Amino acid sequence: MEESATGRMGAGKTLKVWCLSGSYAILKKLKKIGAPLATDAEFLHTPTQDFDWNESFYFNFTDPKREVGGWTRIGILPNQDTDMGAMMLYAGGSRILAVLQTGRAVFEGSELRFGELSYHRLEPLAKWRLVFQGEMMDVDNARKLPELKPETLTTQRVEVDLEVEGMAPCFNFKDSNPRALAEMVVRERTRLSDLRKVSKVSSEHYEQVMRVSGTIKIGNREISFQGSGHRDHSWGVRDWAAPRLWTWLTCQFGEELAFNLSRVAIASVDIFNGFVCREGVNYPLRRAALETEFEEDGVTQKRLAFRIEDVGGGSYDVAGKALTVIPLHLESGGHRTLVNEALAEYQWGDRTGYGIAEYLHQLE
Question: What is the CATH number of the domain that holds 248?
Fold first, then answer.
């Protein structure tokens, strides 16, 4: 069981937690960390000269009744040769439709455009429209994606037009609970000097639970999409080789409950973060415990179970299973990183929900 901030602490550790959480609370107040987001947060930010500086817009979406889902991301990399753009659709069973784009993204007015993929900002911090019209790779088994050769590819005409609207305000990850973070730092015997390394996976970051509606057309099949999803916007240095591992889980159980649970491990740092959205209100994570069963390869997630508690007193036991796993291989400076992006089914009591279960592993 991978666990965070559970069980009792001795007097010495309790004192350390008290000091750390108090210091962080004061720092938040002085630097206005976690203050409500301004609408200009939805625009591009001034990059540094760091090679790994990245500004990322990401959306996922699922429609349980029609058994279709997907995700899309545009990563802006001003200090590298190309930006990164992708859209992946889970089309039932192991089948996916995928498009990967290179070149340069363009942000003009309220539109972020990257080739045939575009995001339209309809209302800052509240509403976006996602549009794609073009050819996508038609892959019968998602696990084969890294092995595909250009000459073997088959394609399918796809049209996506989805509107995503927030079920709740955006959650700023700098609004995380000071006590919870302090307990994790003390329990894991984290070296304070290593905390700075967390900034290598995007120091600015907010997320939002979404309603999603619109249409997806795959060949001659047109799907009237009515579902939910999750989005994030981050900026800062993102070095894929920095974390030992990370886990990022999202799911929506209708309007009543949604969650985000993330885990980042870098050097001696190993912390959980995230929030629970209950009836339109976001509650930062207070405690978390996660257990994952992997396939024989040791890196492909199969089943998972976790307990999360939020600062509002809510406690939830959730079980999940990966339905379709897309392995994504990233290479930088001779280092290879695997990100397994899975459509997942989650169970909370007698409620079933769908979302994403993302696991990152370093290969070499």
Answer: 2.40.370.10
Q: Is residue 116 domain-resident?
A: yes
**Number of domains the chain is built from:** 1
Q: What are phi and psi of 200, to 5 degrees?
A: -80, -5
Residues in CB range of 307: below 8 A, 6 or more apart: 287, 288, 289, 315, 316, 317, 318
Model pTM score: 0.91
Q: Are 180 and 286 in contact (CB under 8 A)?
A: yes
Which residues share a beta bridge with 353?
Answer: 346
Write out the residue range of the structural domain in which residue 74 sits. 39-362
Kindly state whether residue 210 falls inside one of the protein's structural domains.
yes
pLDDT one digit per residue (tens) for the chain, 364 residues = 444 444 455 655 555 444 545 455 544 554 455 567 889 999 999 999 999 999 999 999 999 888 789 999 999 999 999 999 999 999 999 999 999 999 999 999 999 999 999 999 999 999 999 999 999 999 999 999 998 887 888 999 999 999 999 999 999 988 877 777 777 666 767 676 766 777 778 779 999 999 999 999 999 999 999 999 999 999 999 988 889 899 999 999 998 999 999 998 888 888 889 999 999 999 999 999 999 999 999 999 999 999 999 999 999 999 999 999 999 998 877 789 999 999 999 999 999 999 999 999 998 7
C-alpha–C-alpha distance, residues 328 and 159, integer Å? 23
* Spatial CB neighbours of 174, under 8 Å, sequence gap ≥ 6: 28, 33, 34, 204, 205
> In this structure, what token pair is assigned to residue 262?
């993330």
Single-letter residue type at 117 = L
- Give a yes or no: residue 2 inside a domain: no
Give the whole-angstrom CA distance, residue 355 versus residue 116. 25
**Could you tell me if residue 12 is inside a domain?**
no
Report the greatest alpha carbon distance in the chain.
66
